[in-house]
Design a protein that fits this description.
The chain is α+β, with helices and mostly antiparallel strands. The chain has five helices and five strands, in the order αββααββαβα. Helix content is 36%, strand content 13%. Helix 3 crosses helix 4.
Amino acid sequence: MEVDAVFGRLLEAGVSVWLDSDGKLRIDKGAPEEIKQLVREHRQGIIDVQKAIALMNDRGIRIIRLPLGHHALAYRPGTDLAEIRWAAKVLRMDAMPLVINDEGLHWMTWDEWKLRRRVWAEEPPQQPTASVQPKLQFGRKTA
């Protein structure tokens, strides 16, 4: 039995499973014994799915629509790609391409991409310095 079927059975029975703060798998107290046994048999697969979902949410991974109608996994700069690939494989989303998206999780046109701030530059963008403008005087000039 695959993990998808296990989650289907849990949904039918109305039983929740979750990871506690120590990373241990927990199940509702009122769950039937056969459901508990099913969870014990597929424990590692359920833990992997729960961890993959948490990783995708924590890292801000989003599914975006590409201009040609396909989908891709968008990740932020600085994200560990090995973790994303592992989570995508566990969640069976590894067929989707990975794209870097640092522009508010929306797809950019070519022109927008050319004009964007370079995120891979070593130097941070310089802040404009406050320059003092000369005070403009209106009215007549005195001689």
